[in-house]
Amino acid sequence: MFHSYGSGCIIYCFVIIALANAATTYVGLTAHRKRNVITSPNYPQPYGDAYSLEWNILADSSIQNAIVHIKVLDSELSNIFNCYEDIIEIMDGPSSLYSVIRSFCGDSSPSGIVKTSGDSATVTFYTSKKDNDYKGFKLEYWAQSKGLYTLKQNTTTDVVFK
């Protein structure tokens, strides 16, 4: 799935080179019922040089049967080559090895709330473009109980024994 434009250089080679030169920074976070934020470096100013950032979010252990919620409040990233340059990915688990729930770039951020299936999420931010004019992103995250079932108040059930 690599493309060449006659020069012999593969179009996606710049991403591999840029990411190879960017050491990943890992940040561990705890999601509580109260909402907190994650922002790109320097937000709302341009986020700058090549980054490889990973936020590992774990729900507070006091929240039973927890899931993590993530909402994009603001996003403005480069949109060159269909997200091959700057990209945010949200994974359904405690590291970037888990399946991607959502990924986005440019100004095409997901609407609504992204929810995990369990008590953890990972957000990654990879960039390869230097000297950009994009302000980056601001995400909100929190944890809530999954709620296995809901009981209606003031209802009765008749049980008949034969």
TrEMBL record:
Q: Which residues form the CUB domain?
A: 27-144
Cross-referenced SMART domains, in alphabetical order?
CUB
Pfam families from the entry?
CUB
Q: Which Gene3D superfamilies match?
A: Spermadhesin, CUB domain
The cross-references to InterPro entries, in alphabetical order and at most eight, read:
CUB_dom, Sperma_CUB_dom_sf, Spermadhesin-Link_domain
The record ties this protein, via PROSITE patterns, to: CUB
Sorted alphabetically, the keyword list is: Disulfide bond
Query: What is this protein's record name?
Result: CUBN
Q: Report the source organism.
A: Mytilus edulis
Lineage at the top is: Eukaryota, Metazoa, Spiralia, Lophotrochozoa, Mollusca
